[in-house]
Amino acid sequence: MSSAERGVGRSVEDSVGASTGASTVTVTSSGSASNSADKRQLELSRRLLQLLLQDFTGAVSVRLWNGETVAGPAQASTVFELRKAAPLRDMLFGKNLNRLAEAYLAGDVGYQGSLERIFDLIDFLQHRTLSAAEKWQVLKLLLQMQANPVPVLNGDKGGIKRDGNSRATISHHYDVDNEFYQLVLDPEMVYSCAYFHDDSQSLAQAQRNKLDHICRKLMLQPGETLLDIGCGWGGLAIWATTHYGVKVHGITLSQKQLSYGAERVRSLGLADKITLELRDYRELPQHEIYDKIVSVGMFEHIGVSNFPLYFATVQRLLKPGGLFLNHGITNDTGWQAAASSRFINEYIFPDGELARISDVTNAMEKQKFEILDVEALRMHYAMTLRFWMENLLANQDKAVEIAGLRIFRLWRLYMAGSAYFFDQGNLGLYQIVAGKNRHPWPLPLTRQHLYQ
After folding, report:
1. 10 Å Cβ neighbour count for 271?
2. Domain co-membership, 201 together with 176
3. From 237's CA, which of 60, 65, 86, 376 has a CA 20 to 30 Å away?
4. How far, rounded to the nearest angstrom, does the alpha carbon of residue 320 sit from its chain's CA centroid?
5. Mind listing the pLDDT tens digit for each residue in 327-336?
6. In the chain, % of residues over pLDDT 90
7. Taking the mean position of all CA atoms in its chain, how far away is CA 198?
8. Is residue 161 included in any domain, yes or no?
9. Where in the sequence is the domain holding 75, given as residue range(s)?
10. Tens of pLDDT along 93-118?
11. Whole-angstrom Cα distance, residue 296 to residue 298?
């Protein structure tokens, strides 16, 4: 199976939803009034979808709850299923992704085929511009459907609330049961972008590649001290100690991650080499100094307004001549109150905030870091996410047992959307290596040492 095909399959979780009360509209013979009302909603929904999707050329078809295909190719391998009229009235057709997400989580919309491909449809709708005449038609249709048309016509202008990388918001995402993550991740429990040498490699091998790639970039040497900011379940700390002989201080804001990582450190007999603790990077002692510092997959929680404090703290903690590697997600527009941003903040990362890569490097340079190496890995993250989706789907029953159907669906939606936007280039992933001093030069003259 190629990397582009991972995560593609029938909507297995929707069959679970159907058996647990997912809503559909059923027309009975108990009264002509209800039958007539349903036909009316079908007709209005059909007209509204045909209006909005008249220029859609993607490979996704749209099907109403009576089995009728109203847009897209009739024989499409991916089908978006509208199971009742209410989501069509309420979800703003992609302009408010949270309403669409709620409809999916409730089982009021579903899909067959690839959930990732559904984002072709969502992306089209998010960028759909209505003419004055089309707005008038939408207005009339929504009034006939007894819906409030104002949000559709004006757009959702809600902002994004952030709390500043707090323990509570980190727990919101990372303190899902560790067993759930074990179903999805590789054996090292690495919850960040892997590094594939080719598209035939396994996720486990690609994550080992990534851990070693980071250690090589940091030029780790036996006896050095490494600070791991956002150490997760301890995978990088353990790799760096066992393969490069360094002493690691790892910090996290997730109690469940800490408990798992600390137990693994003890079981491997590495307690004298690795210290993991529940600590905010802003609470690290003033006197601490480290040879090397790394942050992988934590940077997204910092917040742009906290860049100066974050990079100044790393600068203070890093010894003269030391190296710092920052591995994090970026986007192509800066963080805006767009539909996808609100979805991430509401459901996945309550403190998530992404920036352009230029904004990140600029913030680092303002704190007197010298940028030594920048590597783009966005396609590696798309591949990683598809492996995670495949693992989650393969372990569906256990995942639902541990976390519930809503969390299962939420993670499927989040990972499919992320894979789609990494593939499209809206999201990026960069590893940046920076140095504290400009003299002496801290790296070899070429990058050959990374690939030997």
Report:
1. 12
2. yes
3. 376
4. 35
5. 999 988 776 6
6. 60
7. 23
8. no
9. 3-154
10. 445 667 777 888 889 999 999 999 99
11. 6
